[in-house]
Amino acid sequence: MVLLPALCYSQDYFVRSRATYYGIPDCLGTPSGACGFGEYRRTANDANVAGVSRLYKNGTGCGACYQVRCTNPYLCTDNGVNIVVTDYGEGDNTDFILSPRAYARMARSDTAAQLFAYGVVDVEYQRIPCSYGGYKLQIKVNGHSRYPSYLAIVIQYQPGNKEILAVDIWQVKHCYNASRN
User: Fold this and answer.
1) Between the CA atoms of 90, 20, 160 and 34, what dihedral angle is there, to the nearest 10 degrees?
2) Of 4, 59, 105, 140, which alpha carbon lies 20 to 30 A from 32's?
């Protein structure tokens, strides 16, 4: 009998941090953001979106999904909320600045007002695979593109829990140049 070692890797652990929310009347995401998603970022994932600082990773953290749950058992659900990173933002020693809708969804029924009164809460979070209900990976040309010298793209609906670090684009009949922005 031969036993072969198996390498196991699991991200089934939670990291302790803090979260807050940003004030916007419609409770959706902000209308602009560092990830370049445009209007999509306001309603992505049923508006369960967040700005992050440390997890932004110079833009490679855009589109990442996290389960975020607050640690107050009297006010918060056990499962918390699943969010998508759509912006960069820094708060009061927080890793997450949640949309008001996402912040409220961490709360038990009828305790959201109390949770909002805290402003900043202790949370636990973990990276989770993204799932977009039938949508496949999309690469969209951003409105900031300026033909012929500048092509801006936005990657949306990235499934799973991996980060895209670079994209190489090759134009037919021209020299190939790798680029990283």
Assistant:
1) -30
2) 105
Q: What are the pLDDT digits (tens) for 3-55?
A: 444 444 445 689 999 999 987 655 455 556 778 776 655 566 767 888 899 99
Q: Please report the DSSP string for 140-181 in residue order.
A: EE-TT-BTTTB--EEEE---BS----------TTS-------
Residue 131 and residue 157 in contact, taking contact as beta carbons nearer than 8 Å: no
Where does 3-120 show beta strands of DSSP type E?
15-21, 49-52, 65-70, 81-88, 96-98
Classified as helix, coil or strand, 42 is: helix
CB atoms within 10 A of CB 31: 11
pLDDT digits (tens, 9 = 90+) for 92-134: 899 999 989 999 999 999 999 999 999 999 999 999 998 877 7
| CA 161 to mean position of chain CA atoms | 11
Backbone torsion region of residue 148, taken as left when φ is above 0, otherwise alpha when ψ lies between -120 and 50, otherwise beta: alpha
Domain boundaries 15-128, CATH class? mainly beta
Residue 120 exposed, middle or buried by CB count within 10 Å (0-12, 13-18, 19+): middle
Residues in a beta bridge with 31: none
How many Cα atoms sit within 13 Å of 16 on the Cβ side?
3
Beta-bridge partner residues of 123: 17, 70
For the entire predicted model, the pTM comes to 0.81
